Amino acid sequence: MKSLVAYYSRTNITKKLAERIASETDSDIEEIKPKVNYQGKIGYARGGKDAISEKIIDLEELKYDPAEYDIVYIGTPVWAGKSSSPVFSYLKQNEGKFNNVKFFTTFGGRGFESTFEQMEANSKKPLKTLALKTKEVKNDEFNLDSFID
Ligand SMILES: Cc1cc2nc3c(=O)[nH]c(=O)nc-3n(C[C@H](O)[C@H](O)[C@H](O)COP(=O)(O)O)c2cc1C
């Protein structure tokens, strides 16, 4: 089965998880790169605002076409109880192109359920989901077995 891991990460937490999933599933990996700057304090505020308003932003050119994969693992940090605007934009940009999806997210304390709901509403029902706290990813307190099964 051909698989792709597509993710956005602002502070490398979701990136760590994405890289682990990719290596354990032998997947290609796509880092979603926004043309908008979300770094720093101003970027944080902009990120919250863009996530809440479900703003569609421009992304750097993608390396891989999700339509060519049996399954795409899509990963995002939780932003204001939603997906990050780069991932939301990725879903919109690739509407109708996903064969199967699984979602993963990292979050500080709350909001992953609504994040998954929003992602499903804008792509399709995921085969599986995985939500991990920032702290759990940092401390390697996770196991991917049932998620990648
Ligand atoms: C704009 C913004 C909004 C956030 N909103 C939430 C939230 O609603 N709930 C939560 O638990 N964490 C929230 N966080 C924290 C991130 O989800 C968390 O730190 C995540 O692990 C960061 O992943 P990353 O390093 O891949 O960007 C927010 C972070 C940012 C930048």
Task: Explain what this protein looks like in three dimensions.
This protein has 149 residues and is α/β, with parallel strands linked by helices. The mean pLDDT is 98. The chain has helices at 13-25, 40-52, 85-93, 112-121, 134-138, 145-148, and strands spanning 3-7, 28-31, 71-79, 82-83, 101-107, 129-133. It has six helices and six strands, in the order E-H-E-H-E-E-H-E-H-E-H-H. A hairpin with a 2-residue loop joins strand 3 and strand 4 (82-83). It has one domain: Flavodoxin domain (Rossmann fold). It starts with a strand and ends with a helix. Strands 1, 2, 3, 4, 5 and 6 form a six-stranded mixed sheet that branches.
- Judged by helices, strands and strand pairing, the structural class is alpha/beta
Cofactors and ligands: flavin mononucleotide
| Dominant shape | globular
- Multimer state: single chain
CATH architecture heading: 3-Layer(aba) Sandwich
What's the CATH class label?
Alpha Beta
Low-confidence stretches: none
Largest beta-sheet characterization: 6 strands, mixed
Q: Helices, strands, pairings?
A:
Elements: E1 3-7, H1 13-25, E2 28-31, H2 40-52, E3 71-79, E4 82-83, H3 85-93, E5 101-107, H4 112-121, E6 129-133, H5 134-138, H6 145-148
Parallel strand pairs: 1-2, 1-3, 3-5, 5-6
Antiparallel strand pairs: 3-4
Bound molecules: flavin mononucleotide.
